Amino acid sequence: MTDLTLSKALKIITSALAKGKELGLKPLAVVVLDAGGHVKAFQRQDGASMMRFEIASGKAYGALAVGVGSRWLNAQAESRPHFLEGLSAVSGGKIVPVPGGVLVKDRKGAIIGAVGITGDTSDNDELAAIAGIEAAGFTADAG
């Protein structure tokens, strides 16, 4: 199993922010959580609005909570809102069920963390997360 080190977490963030710049995205906030849901690293670009840490963390936390990227959670919110209501309740409201929460997997497919990005559209947030994860040599699972 490959560890999600601080160095790798920072590589994910810098690469995700670079992808955002390349695509001309609005200011982003990026959080990397380890497999236990603890913050490994976080950065917020100048101009990113308040609450971005909480939103990014909620996207990543939700992905870890169910073991699949937050795009899946978004689909569940649409088709099974009662499921998301219950999930939100048992998590203490920590889960943000929209794209932009992407699992980080090692070469063997083990979940070693998650990335949450917010600031632009959810689809663009997700693109930046995937770019960051892949640049650090891991596999992304957006759900």
From TrEMBL:
Entries under Pfam families matching the protein: HbpS-like
InterPro entries: GlcG_carb_metab_protein (IPR052517), PduO/GlcC-like (IPR005624), PduO/GlcC-like_sf (IPR038084)
SUPFAM superfamilies, per database record: GlcG-like (SSF143744)
Taxonomy, superkingdom: Bacteria
PANTHER family, per database record: SLR1406 PROTEIN
Record-given protein name: Uncharacterized protein GlcG
